[in-house]
Structures are given as C-alpha cells and as structure tokens.
Amino acid sequence: MPARRILVAALAASALLGAATVPAVASPSPGGHHAGGDGCVGDGARLDYQKDVSVRVLKGVFEHGDTAIVDRFVRTDYIQHNPFAADGSETLKNLGVGVHQQFPQAKYDVKRVISEGDLVLLHSNVVLTPGSRGSAVFDIFRFRGGKIAEHWDTGQNVPDTSANGNDMFSTVSRPQTGQPGARWLTAYNKKLVTKAFDQLIVDKDVSALDRYWGPEYHQHNPTIADGVAGAREGLGGYFRAFPELAVSVKRVVAEGELVAVHSHYVNAPGERGQAVVDLFRVRNGKIVEHWDVLQDVPETSANDNTMF
Questions:
Q1: pLDDT one-digit tens code per residue, 41-65
Q2: Where would I find the beta strands (DSSP E) of the chain?
Q3: pTM for the complete prediction?
C-alpha cells in the first residue's frame, strides 16, 4: 500500500496517540461498562471510559502494533465511514500494523477529546514523519455495549501559513486548556451552538455573529482572519460565491464548553461536497473560539456507508 494511501487509511482508523490530554480512569474492562446507560456506572464515569478506550485502542494499535487490544475493545462488525477503508475490526488491525511498520515514529497528538451519549470526538495533529506539519484530524466514534462500533472522520493537511496567526490546534481563549470544562454546561452550550450554526451556516445569515459570537473570538481555520470581523468577511464572501450552498447537519457532540458539529457542505447542486467538522468553544454564553477540518467527499469508497 503506497505511503499516501496508508496515511489516509490511518486517518480512517483514527490512530490517535498522546493520551496525556485524556482524563485518567481505571483500566477499562470490556464487559464492565456500557454506552447505553444501563446503570453499570455513573454517566460521567461512562463518558470518561469511552474517551479513555478511544485513545487506548488506537495508541496501542498504531504506536505499538498491538492488535490484541482491538479484539478486546472494538466490535468485529465495526462500521467504517472513511471512504479509504473497509468495514470490520480486521481492517483496523491490518491498517495499524502497516502504519506502524512503515512509520515507526508516527505520532497522533490528541489536542482535545469530548464525549456525549454514546459518541466520542477527538481533535488531533497526525504526524507520520518527525518534523513535518502533518494533518489536522477529527474522529468520531460510536460505542455500543462498551466497545467501539462505528467511526467517522475528516482529515486536512496543515498548511505552511495562516491568515489569522493561530495554528490549527492551540487554545487561544482563556483559560488556555484543551479540557472541555464542566459537564453541567453541556446542554446549554449545545443548544446555543446549534442555533448559532443553523442561523449562520445553514441559513447563511451573518447577523448571527452579532448575537452568538463574543468580541474576543479566535479563529483557527487557516484561510479566515481572526475575530468576528474576519469571520464576517470570510463567510460573507463564501456565501456570495456559492449562493446555492446547502449544509446538512449530521450529528452534534458536546461536552462542557466544547461543541462539535459534523456536517455535509455542498457548494452547488450535483457536487459531492465536503465532510466538515466545526468545533466551537463557548464561554459565558458566547462563542469565543473555532477549529475545523474539511475533506472532499471522493467519487468512490472502500465501504458502502458514505462519510455521514
């Protein structure tokens, strides 16, 4: 398998390393926790378990070539939505072995991870070769019966320059942390971001910036200038260039101050469009920071599931 295809397949499998940002929990047991809220553990412990397993599995597979951990924590009928990888846990194991052999120094630096319900979302800088900028990647996992059952992702090469001076991963708003914050804020912030996203992106109404965005807003999309003014100019130009833009929201994952929206952007009718994950940080009732990753939907796929 050529190196580029292995990279894309690795992103398909979400080889996420660098568990330092993941909350420390007890060593997971394959049968002791369940994502369906069956009363085995408290909800917070279950969410931490899901985050911990998501990183443990993929760190073991792609950093150490450990395929046994897949048998323990990934369902054999694992559903894959990355178009460059087939369904099933055996594919995940084979990809992990291939990446580990060809790129033994690969690092998957997890910047932030959140969990809500049966979903986990991870934002990472994937670097196969030391010294390169690598890729920005969002991965979403769905758990069933305490095991990883399904996966979606988006990946984008990190460019050499940025229009806003911020990299694609750091936290600029204060406090400068990758942690999601208090879970009691989840429902409120999820509702706020959903309304803001629908008005701004789905309805293409830039006045949403005045209502939902804070004056200290920080931008990590490398093509858009910083601040509310930068967002207004950049998105306004985008909407004018593509008046028939259609955005359909597929899923929203939130925890604490962080809310992620997974969507299908189609600039014009008949196009395949892009798979996009937008991640927002909310502070004191206003959106103060944004990261995103965009990936073109390819013409063909190794599975029959679509990217959504």
A1: 469 999 999 999 998 887 777 777 8
A2: 74-80, 107-116, 119-127, 135-144, 147-157, 213-219, 246-255, 258-266, 274-283, 286-296
A3: 0.88
